[in-house]
């Protein structure tokens, strides 16, 4: 489940109902999402009315916390797995979960020191899964570039943690409080131009067709 998707919460609710209908506990791996640039470009190519993902990193962080709390509320329906290298996110999961079991996940080669403290140093050791990408060179290269872009961004926890001049309070600040402060003070930055308006006022963006979708092809052929 990619928290940067605006459908994340509705999909989790659907999965909860599916679990209850089938009597099966569903394992869900919650991530923030690694294809942001592609999602933005695909939406612009298709001239969509809006983006399917949040266009600000902070909103993705807030969405992740909301998804996490929803999953932890239904331990009989969800086997909770939280993938993150952000200390604030991991701390939030620990506090929100209380005695509800969940699994942490990290990428091989990242967050080793932090996870060593969390997994082995806690009174009740947490389950931790370490994963690594497997595939052909061309696939892995794209994956590596996305990881570098993500961790090199100014808003990245890894990037901020490596800055010795940055105060701890800023590194671990709550994204919910930041979002509420911006809204209350009218400090939110200018929103990203919507896909259908990227050429405005010269012209309206053309509407693309997702021909890989059977529903789109069926409607097109019917016309």
Short description:
With 223 residues, the chain is of the alpha/beta class.
Task: Describe what this molecule looks like in 3D.
It contains ten helices and four strands; from the N terminus they run αβααβαβαβααααα. It has 223 residues and is of the alpha/beta class. It has a single domain, classed as TIM Barrel (Alpha-Beta Barrel). It has a four-stranded parallel sheet with strand order 1-2-3-4, with helices on one face. Helix 3 packs parallel to helix 4 and helix 3 packs across helix 9.
- β-strand number: 4
Q: Which percent bin holds the helix content? A: 40-55%
Q: What's the CATH topology label? A: TIM Barrel
What is the rounded distance between the termini?
35 Å
The CATH architecture term is Alpha-Beta Barrel
Number of domains: 1
The CATH top-level class label: Alpha Beta
Features:
single chain, 10 helices, 4 strands, 4-stranded parallel sheet, alpha/beta, TIM Barrel, 223 residues
How are the SSEs placed, and which strands pair?
Layout: H1 8-22, E1 26-30, H2 36-46, H3 57-73, E2 78-83, H4 87-97, E3 103-107, H5 112-121, E4 127-131, H6 137-152, H7 157-161, H8 168-171, H9 175-185, H10 214-222
Parallel strand pairs: 1-2, 2-3, 3-4
Helix pairs in contact: 1-3, 3-4, 3-9
């Amino acid at each position: 489940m990619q928290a940067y998707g605006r459908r994340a919460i509705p999909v989790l609710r659907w999965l909860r109902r599916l679990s209850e209908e089938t009597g099966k506990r569903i394992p869900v791996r919650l991530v923030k999402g690694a294809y942001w640039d592609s999602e933005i470009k695909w939406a612009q190519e298709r001239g969509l009315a809006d983006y399917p993902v949040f266009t600000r990193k902070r909103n993705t962080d807030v969405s992740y916390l909301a998804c996490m709390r929803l999953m932890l509320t239904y331990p009989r329906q969800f086997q909770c797995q939280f993938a993150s290298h952000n200390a604030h996110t991991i701390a939030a999961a620990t506090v929100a979960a209380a005695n509800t079991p969940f699994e942490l996940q990290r990428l091989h080669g990242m967050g080793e020191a932090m996870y060593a403290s969390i997994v082995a140093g806690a009174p009740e050791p947490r389950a931790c899964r370490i994963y690594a990408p497997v595939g052909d060179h061309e696939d892995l290269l794209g994956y590596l570039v996305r990881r570098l872009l993500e961790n090199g961004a100014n808003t990245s926890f890894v990037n901020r943690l490596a800055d010795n001049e940055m105060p701890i309070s800023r590194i671990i600040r709550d994204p919910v409080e930041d979002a509420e402060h911006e809204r209350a003070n009218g400090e939110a930055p200018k929103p990203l131009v919507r896909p259908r308006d990227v050429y405005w006022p010269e012209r309206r963006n053309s509407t693309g067709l997702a021909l890989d979708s059977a529903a789109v092809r069926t409607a097109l052929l019917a016309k």
